[in-house]
């Protein structure tokens, strides 16, 4: 176990989430003592814009924590005890392509789901491996990487194959955000909820929601049937996601449970189970990427400018479950707290009728040696089949990335439930290869060498 006070490096320091995460760290310094915070990013200008805001957040709470801003890996990771990874490879401009290209073909345009998520995965796997190698080379040998970088399911599978020994824990804040909403609906703090959950990242179901041992899923089922997974006043539950598109995301749990009421689905399942309705409500010229660029990103950069000019920092970033969750996980890893959290781990029988080596999202006790998954048993045939199709799509995508195989990429796109035909898969993939010219060299070569059918 590493000893406090810790050196923490944030890879993707220019992220819009960095100030919120650092604020979550500052209000928990007693639980997670820090000697130094380092920001690392390949976009120096972007990171240098965010850095003064981050430093202000730190100095409002501590005068002694060392603050380092760098684009040099050795400076960033030497002797580090924890690395929070939150890269967006290609930044929002490529997220916009990920979302708009499929929509031009009448297919769901989404950051981590469908063809957009597959394209995002093709960009992210190898930079994630590069980050792991840098951390392994420079950081404390007991250092943990806690990874938020999306698409988490594909990144987790790529890391399993390429760096199986790496001390990386992949996490997602969607289940914990759903639990925040459940707590608001039930009138209990989310930390009082103990859930059973199974699936892949962004593709899973809650099967029990216990409060002091009593399953409260029946109550939630009744609420969802009226309002979806939100309190009646949506903005009260999730201020960062008061955007209409996010309110709709939470409300759309209702139609899924109207059809399949047994389990409470992760909101992302709407993209796979009701894609036509999603596409009908998506604007191919103005997607979630545009909302974020004109919302969260614009607001934070304007605040940074205001702070630079006036020395006053407007309230411009969200401190919520996103920051709180990664700090919870870091504390449990650091001090062997064995807290139960939903994290992405190698299956090894936790879901009895899914492949042993699948990267699944299940409850696990977080120890200093890593996560210990809770066995969720065998899942029903309906869920197993959906999961196997999604798993195959993701695993073929990872193989396509590693081998530079156009055919496997086409199989991955064709297998994805959001893509109706192989012709749609080919048309979208070929457009994405063009758009990702700077990011997929191996696939580009295969495609240009006439491997494309
Ligand atoms: N796992 C989850 O549940 C979850 C929740 C929220 C956000 N995220 C993910 O967190 C990431 C950050 O989100 P954001 O909206 O703040 O993005 P952002 O674009 O605001 O910031 C991402 C930063 O990563 C940097 N970056 C890109 N490639 C890099 C590399 N190879 N090495 C180092 N830095 C690199 C960019 O320059 C940018 O500054 C995204 O991947 C997003 O999908 C995941
Ligand atoms: O569209 P974005 O960029 O605002 O959000 C995309 C991310 O959405 C999920 O995380 C949300 C979370 O569900 C929400 O309640 C709140 O806590 O903010 C989080 C980050 O926006 C999802 O888990 C991530 O993987 C997505 O990247
Ligand atoms: Mn997520």
Summarize the structure.
This protein is an alpha/beta fold and 453 residues long.
The overall pLDDT, averaged over residues, is: 94
Instruction: Please summarize the sheet with the most strands.
Output: 6 strands, parallel
**SS strand fraction:** 15-25%
The CATH topology of the domain at 6-171 comes to Rossmann fold
Helix content: 40-55%
Small-molecule binders: nicotinamide-adenine-dinucleotide, the ligand O=P(O)(O)OC[C@H]1O[C@H](O[C@H]2[C@H](O)[C@@H](O)[C@@H](O)O[C@@H]2CO)[C@H](O)[C@@H](O)[C@@H]1O, manganese (II) ion
Binding site for Mn(2+): 172, 202
Active site: 173, 268
Family: Belongs to the glycosyl hydrolase 4 family.
Binding site for substrate: 95, 150, 288
Strand and helix map with partners:
Elements: E1 6-11, H1 18-26, E2 34-40, H2 44-59, E3 66-70, H3 73-77, E4 82-85, H4 91-103, H5 114-138, E5 144-147, H6 152-162, E6 168-170, H7 174-186, E7 193-200, E8 203-211, E9 214-215, H8 217-227, H9 234-237, H10 244-251, H11 253-259, E10 264-265, H12 270-273, H13 275-281, H14 288-310, H15 321-335, E11 339-346, E12 359-367, E13 370-373, H16 381-403, H17 406-415, H18 422-435, H19 441-451
Parallel strand pairs: 1-2, 1-4, 2-3, 4-5, 5-6
Antiparallel strand pairs: 7-8, 8-9, 8-10, 11-12, 12-13
Helix pairs in contact: 1-2, 1-15, 2-14, 4-5, 4-14, 4-18, 5-6, 5-16, 6-16, 8-11, 16-17, 17-18
GO molecular function: hydrolase activity, hydrolyzing O-glycosyl compounds; metal ion binding; oxidoreductase activity, acting on the CH-OH group of donors, NAD or NADP as acceptor
Organism: Kosakonia arachidis
Keywords: Cobalt, Glycosidase, Hydrolase, Iron, Manganese, Metal-binding, NAD, Nickel
């Amino acid at each position: 176990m590493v000893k406090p006070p810790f050196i923490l490096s944030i890879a993707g320091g220019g992220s819009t989430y960095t100030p919120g995460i650092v604020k979550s760290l500052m209000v928990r310094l007693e639980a997670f003592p820090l000697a130094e915070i380092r920001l690392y990013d390949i976009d120096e200008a972007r990171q240098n814009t965010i850095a003064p805001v981050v430093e202000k957040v730190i100095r409002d709470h501590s005068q002694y924590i060392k603050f380092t801003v760098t684009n040099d890996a050795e400076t960033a990771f030497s002797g580090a005890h924890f690395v929070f990874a939150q890269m967006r490879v290609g930044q929002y401009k490529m997220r916009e392509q990920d979302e708009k290209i499929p929509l031009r073909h009448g297919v769901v345009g989404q950051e981590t789901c469908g063809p957009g998520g597959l394209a995002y995965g093709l960009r992210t796997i190898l930079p994630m491996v590069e980050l792991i190698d840098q951390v392994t080379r420079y950081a404390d040998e007991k250092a943990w990487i806690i990874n938020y970088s999306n698409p988490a399911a594909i990144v987790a599978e790529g890391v399993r194959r390429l760096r199986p020994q790496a001390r990386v824990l992949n996490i997602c804040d969607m289940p914990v955000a759903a639990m925040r909403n459940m707590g608001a609906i039930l009138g209990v703090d989310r930390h009082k909820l103990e859930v059973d959950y199974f699936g892949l990242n962004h593709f899973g179901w809650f099967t029990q929601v216990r409060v002091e041992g009593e399953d409260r899923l029946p109550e939630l089922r009744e609420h969802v049937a009226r309002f979806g997974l939100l309190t009646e006043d949506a903005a009260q539950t999730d201020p960062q996601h008061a955007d209409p598109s996010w309110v709709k995301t939470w409300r759309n749990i209702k139609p899924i449970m109207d059809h399949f009421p047994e389990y409470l689905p992760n909101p992302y399942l709407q993209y796979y189970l009701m894609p036509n309705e999603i596409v009908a409500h998506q604007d191919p010229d103005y997607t979630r990427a545009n909302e974020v660029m004109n919302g969260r990103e614009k607001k934070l950069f304007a605040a940074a400018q205001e702070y630079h000019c006036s020395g006053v920092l407007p309230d411009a970033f969200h401190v919520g479950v996103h920051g709180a969750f990664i700090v919870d996980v870091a504390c449990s890893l650091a001090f062997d707290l064995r807290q139960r959290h939903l994290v992405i781990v190698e299956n090894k029988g936790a879901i009895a009728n899914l492949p042993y080596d699948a990267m699944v999202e299940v409850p696990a006790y977080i120890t200093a040696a890593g996560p210990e998954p809770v066995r969720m048993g065998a899942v029903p045939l309906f869920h197993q089949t959906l999961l196997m199709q999604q798993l195959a799509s993701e695993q073929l995508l990872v193989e396509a990335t590693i081998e530079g195989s156009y055919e496997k990429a086409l199989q991955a796109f064709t297998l994805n439930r959001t893509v109706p035909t192989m012709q749609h898969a080919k048309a979208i993939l070929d457009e994405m290869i063009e758009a990702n010219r700077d990011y997929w060299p191996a696939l580009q070569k295969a495609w240009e060498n006439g491997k494309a059918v």
